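Late entry, written up from scratch paper. The run itself happened at the end of the previous shift, but nothing got recorded in the book at the time, so transcribing now.
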Amino acid sequence: MLTLIIKILRIIRNRTDHFLFAGEHKWFFIQWWMLNGFFYSIVKKLKLREGEHQIGRLRNQKAIFRSIKENPIPGDVIEFGSYQGFGLYWLALFRNRFKIKNMKIIGVDSFQGLPESSTMWTKGQFNDTSIELCETKLCKMFGTKTLRAEEIYLIKGLFDDSAVKSHLGSISQNFLIIHVDCDLGSSCLSALEMVKKLNLNRYSYLLFDDWYLQEEEIPRSFDRFESETKGTYSLTYLSRTRFTKYFTLSVR
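Output as recorded:
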């Protein structure tokens, strides 16, 4: 009987966790006041997998933006893998809350789901999006008619497309934060190949959202990138959560 009760409680916990922190409701449930050590410790003790992921990564992002505010460094933000825009929303919100001026937020995505299958992923997964849906959600959250009013830009295309690079160049000439929010190792490699072509600040942030989900995906792609750019960049570990890992990147 006790075993059954524990099983039922775990099911309730997991479904509640997903409902509040992973589904559509996360847009409205997750609030600024939650990004503190006390609330984070609660979701960890309750073993809320998605709650720990979202609160943990947003706390670390908040710390980065606070650091940028206290030690001003010019540059824009690029996110590889924007899906429906939740990550972009918080990146822009941090910028706004810390009143960091002249910082553009740019999201790049095919908006067609994963391009191939690999390890735990299936081709076409996360295809319940579009550039129009992403824009609509972000405009609704910020209460604006256009993303340009919030200095948010969306680019549709594969990460390593020459057209994407050209579009990026027309928007920004200096990147400070690179947020890699893709699940596939191949997509991560494509994003990192594009990073090599970007005009980076001498001191930047390289953030990986899905680092610990599958060793063969993001970590392996990062190792290759680090090896190939050893004489160009210096990468220093900054922070981590259950799923994410963040670095600072310095141009040698």
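The CA atoms of residues 92 and 105 lie 6 Å apart.
(Scratch paper discarded after transcription.)
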